[in-house]
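HUMAN:
Sorry, I am quite new to this. Are you able to go through these amino acid letters and fold codes? The numbers rather puzzle me.
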Amino acid sequence: MIDLSAQQPAPVLAYTPQVAAATAAVYDRVRDVIPAIEWPVHAPYIEAIERLKKERNAIVLAHNYQTPEIFHGVADLTGDSLALARMAAETDADVIVLCGVHFMAETAKLLNPAKTVLIPDLKAGCSLASSITGADVRLLKERYPGVPVVTYVNTSADVKAETDVCCTSANAVEVVESLGVDRVIFLPDEYLGRYVARHTDVELILWHGHCEVHERFTGDQLRQFRRRYDDLQILAHPECPPDVLEEADFVGSTSGMIRAVGERRPRRVVMVTECSMSDNVAVEHPEVEFIRPCNLCPHMKRITLPKILDSLRHLRYEVEVAPEIAAPARRAVERMLEVGRGSQAG
């Protein structure tokens, strides 16, 4: 039987003086990136979500690519893939709402098998995660017997289950070298793999997966920005093509890029990654001018405040991982966290 009541969209909420007062501190924080005319739309949902989180003993984890009203409005913990994985492993909340994409929610579930893990939209996928399956990894292992597999955390649980250890863009070199071998299968991001190969003597066997956001940037695009702004700093994510990384002043993970802005305090900066991240970092650094070559992730943008409220209200959509996949996938993620223990998160 289909529960039609659960199919109904969340009602439009009113912007009352009480809601305005309850969310005033949040708006003071984000007023430079969220126009005043939009705030009456967001504020009622923020207030309602905050109330419901307390009732559910719930926590909201938000990736850096979420929009500012989510990232700064309702998120309890924020970060990149590695940071969210660590936070998920440490939370004592009963319910985790993962504001990101599906593989991130799966990772949270792997590390919290007894907790309820929700994703507000089941269609929030990832082009990179979709580029490879567990069956593909098994074929690679047959072709290269005995060669360990390092898998980017941006993958499904069934791929992680075929993996020796996971990594993120922040700790990929460290994870590869921790294995103490001469050759590694590195999956699935080709551009991240090329970047890692330049920073290690380990031979990497690569897969041809790409992120649909980062692969659209070009070196020529960045050269045009340089001609327009002679004092520009370019920070790029290693999922970008090699010609983009050649033009960058800094290459690093999302948290590494955020850290670089704080340390360098450039007058103008381009963050060559998903453009909501620039909005979120701009809140912390109003003195920096952010030039935005804006590529949006359509999957991240499926997560909205009404959907978060709906997810908390109905406890949907719950993420589950089959036990036979969860056990080996969990080991691969936990090994990643052990390699990074004591090192700088990113």
User: Anything to note?
Assistant: The chain has three domains: 4-126+300-314, 129-211, 214-291. Confidence is low (pLDDT under 50) at residues 1-7, 342-346. The CA atoms of residues 257 and 263 lie 10 Å apart.
